[in-house]
TrEMBL record:
PANTHER family the record matches: LACI-RELATED TRANSCRIPTIONAL REPRESSOR (PTHR30146), TRANSCRIPTIONAL REGULATORY PROTEIN (PTHR30146:SF138)
Keyword terms, alphabetized: DNA-binding, Transcription, Transcription regulation
Top-rank lineage group of the source organism: Bacteria
One Pfam family matching this protein: Peripla_BP_1
Molecular function terms from GO: DNA-binding transcription factor activity; transcription cis-regulatory region binding
SMART domains per the UniProt record, alphabetical: HTH_LACI
Keyword Glycoprotein found: no
Residue ranges occupied by any HTH lacI-type domain in the UniProt entry: 2-56
Protein name: Substrate-binding domain-containing protein
UniProt entry tagged with the keyword Repeat: no
Length: 341
């Protein structure tokens, strides 16, 4: 087993400097810390966790809270995201501890997790509107980063995508093509990202001068069956929408299925746009026709989230660790001008 002394000799640095770098002391500059971490990984050095906690008061563990254990089974892309986060944390000498809410009470589950575990910081996913978990963590001064962010005025670290732009880009593009009857199939607005997307959709149709009766918002779970069932109701009659914006590629796939059953051709009779998180087994380029999307893969968030929680644990201010990532509009064959027939 490689020792601290061997890492020190390999780098030509003192054992004290190497130890401080591995344990995240702020007096070691980032360039040196990264050099030490990479060398330790190359040489196979693994610090003694017990000794490390005694020396620093830190467990070198980060917790992540899931809304439900079903996320690990029903969302294969989330497994990939977890793997990436684990890898990036490991480079910085941290392990990832996973927990979830079993009975749907996410706040109580979080309190229990915090009281029983020795994590140095937390990663929170899928925040609700005015999320109670965020308020609790801010009050307790526990380092945490949120994947997403809620609608409160609390100051905390987060990594999010530009959810307002998801709706704005989709509706503006459809309007440019000539569509005025547009349905938005969104997730439940108790989720912060869904509330942001709905608010932006409403604001955009007002800016474009569209009638609210022509641009309606509907809600369903982000699953193929739910999208198919809702679309089967929306796409009948002379007043049906000529375009549909979907919250996810799974919902869009359900819309494709309903359209086919009703004899509607995607791209001419009906235009469809969805947000694409890069869900495994749902490659939007392989849809028939290929799906027009706003695009921002979930796995792109893994490294910044891992780096953010490490910086928070090291004492950096949450106000300096707030990121909103842009989304791209990728135009493919599922969108076109409305059919005059």
């Amino acid at each position: 087993m490689t020792t601290l002394a061997e890492v020190s000799k390999y780098l030509g640095l003192s054992m004290a400097t190497v130890s401080r770098a591995i344990n995240g002391y702020p007096e070691v500059n980032e360039k040196t810390r990264q050099r030490v971490v990479e060398a330790a990984d190359k040489l196979g050095y693994r610090p003694n966790k017990v000794a490390q906690k005694l020396a620093t008061g830190k467990s070198k563990m980060v917790g992540i809270m899931l809304q439900s254990p079903d996320e690990l089974v029903c969302a294969p892309t989330f497994l990939s995201e977890l793997a990436h986060i684990t890898n990036y944390l490991g480079v910085n000498g941290y392990d990832l501890l996973i927990n979830s809410s079993l009975q749907g009470d996410s706040l109580q589950a979080l309190k229990k997790f915090v009281s029983k575990s020795e994590v140095d910081g937390l990663i929170i996913k899928a925040p609700m509107v005015n999320d109670e978990r965020i308020q609790f963590l801010v009050e307790k001064k526990i380092p945490f980063v949120v994947h997403g962010h809620d609608t409160s005025d609390l100051e905390y670290a987060y990594f999010d995508i530009d959810n307002a732009s998801v709706s704005e880009q989709a509706l503006a593009f459809l309007h440019q093509l000539g569509h005025s009857k547009v349905a938005f199939i969104n997730s439940q607005e108790s989720l912060a990202f869904a509330k942001t997307r709905s608010d932006a959709f409403r604001q955009k149709w007002s800016e474009l001068g569209l009638e609210s009766e022509q641009c309606e918002i509907f809600h369903c779970t982000p699953e193929v069956t739910a999208g198919r069932e809702l679309a089967a109701e929306l796409l009948v009659g002379e007043t049906r929408p000529t375009a549909v914006v979907c919250s996810s590629s799974k919902v869009a796939y359900g819309v494709y299925m309903a359209a086919a059953e009703l004899g509607l051709k995607i791209g001419s009779d009906l235009s469809v746009i969805a947000h694409d998180d890069g869900i495994q087994h749902f490659d939007t380029r392989e849809f028939n026709p290929p799906l027009t999307v706003t695009h921002s893969p979930l796995t792109n968030s893994s490294e910044p989230i891992a780096n953010t929680i490490v910086k928070l644990i090291s004492g950096e201010s949450p106000a300096q660790l707030q990121t909103t990532s842009p989304v791209d509009l990728i135009v493919r064959g599922s969108t076109g001008k409305p059919n005059s027939n």
